[in-house]
Amino acid sequence: MARSPVQHGDRDVSSRSTYWRGRAALATGATGFVGAHLVASLLASGAEISVLLRDHDRRSELFRSGNIGRVAVIEGELESLADVERAIAESGASVVFHLGAQTLVGVGLNAPLLTFESNVRGTYNVLEACRRQSRTVERVIVASSDKAYGQSDHPYTEEDPLRASSPYDVSKAAGDLIAQSYHATYGLRVGIVRCGNIYGGGDLNWSRIVPGTIRSFLKREPPEIRSDGTYVRDYIYVADVVDAYLAVAEALERPDVNGEAFNFASGAQVSVLEMVKSIAKLVGGQLPEPRVLNLAKNEIKEQRLSTEKAKRILGWTPRVSLDDGLRSTIEWYRSYLGAKP
User: Fold this and answer.
1) Which of 26, 171, 310, 336 could form a disulfide linkage to 91, CB 3.0–4.6 angstroms apart?
2) Within 13 Å and on the Cβ side, how many CA atoms surround 68?
3) Is 0.90 topped by the overall pTM?
4) Could you give phi then psi for residue 171, rounded to 5 degrees?
5) Of 149, 156, 168, 231, which is the active-site residue?
6) What spatial distance separates the first Cα and last Cα of the chain, rounded to whole Å?
7) Confidence of residue 239 (pLDDT cuts 50, 70, 90)
8) Residue 233, strand partner residues
């Protein structure tokens, strides 16, 4: 169902249903954690959605919600330009959301070529296909990441250079720069979204700290922390992330948005151990202590984002606090895992 009107700075979210009603959009990565939530929001707003789908992952919220039956499914792979171009042509999309990617840092370390093929080739295929279909494609939104910035001793701003070093981080930085290139060289209307660590119901990548910790605590098992627990991340709830994608898409006709990158985060900058303690408090009861493995390699120690640009230009601010987001997330996993309160 459509969201109730909520004011985000100068931007009235109640206008969203009018903007998206009847608008054709294509999403890559729709079986992913964020992609499934994005598709749900677009459908609720009346958009006509097509998805480029390689794998029919029936655990995904796209399937579990039944939304797979409400979208046009186009089979294909991001690594194939022909598949991507066919998807854009068949969908008739005026808006393309490119979220499809290999999203795990650990997989990037173990399988760098797979990661580069998916995240770099996949991104330039989407951009090239949109360039070739520019008569119908009016705007493209590309998922980048705070990982693209690399190490920094201050909160990232969009003016900071991209200094990624590990394979996953470099793959996101490369896709980000390629998107900027297609705007600067060909005039493609592109917006780039750089988010902090995203959490919420529907993320089944148990190696991530939030879903993995919640599952362990609900099973009354000790969660495992790959790092030493002091790594700091800027967390953001998935509903705020979806709102960020839509905010960029809706404003892309503006010259101060077109071709630009925007940071999105909630300001909830906490260490891994602090996150585990917050989850434990909300789960409640007698819980085991986490196992600190201290095995993390090639990961950035602290990541903090400035969202001043998004607030100033888009009127975007996060709506969901860390505690509220974690409460909602824990309840989702209780239901999914059949855990008792």
Assistant:
1) 26
2) 19
3) yes
4) -60, -40
5) 168
6) 27
7) very high
8) 270
